[in-house]
Design goal:
This protein is of the alpha/beta class. The protein has nine helices and 16 strands.
């Protein structure tokens, strides 16, 4: 296993204000070191099962707020569709309970194990963006890069003081089922972030009724956007090449999807935030919601 390392040993905590021009989608350990004294920096550790892993007596990031992706309510089931965005008041309440207010710059830290796990960070990042909070970043490589650089650890997470977090929804980032129906008629590009086997209809997730994909969709596999070997997200030139390979223009309108809006967030993050195509939205319900209604069309490439 190879990890891009630095020689930093950083104690990252709540930190002088972070200037807007320095908010970038991905930050590295050097950036964390340079901003460690910023009192408006909040490191948000979303790793699941931290205490269940073999990390000794100090498994936590020093000074970080902990909110495990699969445990605290970042996603929920709505009308039988899993993985949906919860009611926005609930999400805002969750964020406020973590001591995060609208003036904070949030840096999200996943495990960084592989693209699927890194998707927890891209999904939470998308959630902040949808709520209108632009001061959000992801630590590239997550815990793997933090630990490889000798980042300071703690026995327990900090106990944040709850605050008020307000939101202003950015509706253009969330595609509804009706908007996907309209996209089929208008020719908006639909980007399937699932593995090729699911895109082609050779297999499916248990939460999706039938095999196949949205009619006319193109495939950018989530695993092509994150290196599990090096623990690094794809660079802009790589995302550009992936988009070009499916004939997606640099500023062309598109909607990403997958099974439940998890892998789709990886494709959204790559296209919108890393590549810079701000005409990218994400279908939260994805194929699990789409296939609930048998009358909605599904294209199965394995039948041809």
């Amino acid at each position: 296993m190879r990890i891009a390392t630095t020689t930093l040993a950083v104690a990252v905590g709540l930190a002088a204000p972070v200037y807007a021009q320095d908010v970038r989608p991905l930050v590295d350990m050097e950036w964390l070191q340079e901003n460690a004294d910023n009192e408006k920096l909040v490191v948000l550790d979303i790793r699941d099962d931290i205490e269940g892993t073999d990390l000794g007596n100090e498994p936590y990031i020093a000074g970080a707020v902990v909110a495990p992706y699969g445990e605290v309510g970042w996603r929920t089931e709505i009308d039988g569709v899993p993985g949906k965005l919860p009611p926005v008041d609930d999400v805002a309440g969750l964020i406020g309970s973590l001591g995060i207010d609208n003036g904070d710059h949030v840096v999200i830290v996943p495990w960084g194990t592989d693209s699927t796990e890194f998707g927890s960070a891209t999904r939470v990042y998308w959630t902040f963006k949808y709520l209108g909070h632009d001061a959000v970043s992801i630590l590239d490589g997550g815990w793997r890069q933090y630990d490889a650089a000798g980042g300071a650890r703690a026995a327990q997470p900090i106990q944040p003081e709850p605050t008020e977090f307000t939101y202003e929804l950015q509706e253009q980032l969330l595609a509804t089922t009706d908007e996907v129906v309209a996209a089929l008629d208008s020719g908006v590009v639909l980007v399937d972030g699932r593995p090729a086997e699911q895109f082609d209809g050779q297999s499916k997730s248990p939460v999706v009724r039938v095999e196949g994909t949205l009619p006319g969709a193109v495939n950018i596999e989530h695993s092509d956007l994150y290196s599990a070997e090096y623990a690094l997200f794809a660079r802009p030139e790589t995302v550009s090449a992936l988009a070009e390979a499916v004939n997606l223009g640099a500023d062309e309108e598109n909607i990403t999807f997958c099974n439940t809006g998890h892998w789709a967030s990886i494709a959204w993050f790559g296209l919108s935030e890393v590549f810079g195509n701000r005409n990218t939205s994400m279908y939260d319900g994805s194929m699990s919601e789409w296939t609930v209604d048998p009358s909605r069309p599904v294209e199965n490439h394995s039948d041809t």
